[in-house]
Amino acid sequence: MRLPILVTAYFGYKANERPEPFSVDEDLFDIAEVEDRWHEPDAEYFRVRTADSKRYILRYSELVDEWTLQSGFDGDKLLGRPGIELVTVQAARIREAQSRVLGCEHCQPDDAEVPFDWLLQEVTGRTGNVDFIMTEPAKCPRCMRAVTEKTLVEW
């Protein structure tokens, strides 16, 4: 299981070279050390230790430009935290939300201000403390780039 997260990443010789602080909902986790990293065909993985000595596995997918928290170590506690409902969004609802997009943060950086998951809330009717997991990627109709749950869009 994985959960999309916000990561401030170090940009060295390439984008998103390594994670620095990351946040889950309102909680910020400062990374004290990247203990290990490995590459698989679809993503880069980082085992990190935070300032409070907890260990997490973070995954970065360059294909969809998305960071996620993986299960394992102290990540299991965050993934199982109460109060957040994980909602799987099927293809039809993804396409319905996608049809309302005029552009994304890549092709309309000055106008894209709303996270795509706001549109997912609208088309699914789910509100509150909800995180969405899309069963397939959405695409920006203007530039055809991948749109994740947290991609900023113009609608």
Structural notes for this entry:
- With 155 residues, the chain is mainly beta.
- The chain folds into two domains: 2-79, no CATH class; 85-154, no CATH class.
- The protein is 14% helix and 45% strand.
- It contains three helices and 15 strands.
- The strands form five sheets. A five-stranded antiparallel sheet has the order 1-8-7-6-5.
- The longest helix is centred in the C-terminal third of the chain and has 9 residues, at 116-124.
- The radius of gyration is 16 Å and the shape is globular.
- The chain starts with a strand and ends with a strand.
- Count of runs of 4 or more consecutive helical residues: 3
**Largest sheet report:** 5 strands, antiparallel
**Structural class by SSE content:** mainly beta
Which radius of gyration do the C-alpha atoms yield?
A: 16 Å
Summarize the entry for a quick read.
The protein is mainly beta and 155 residues long. 14% of the residues lie in helices and 45% in strands.
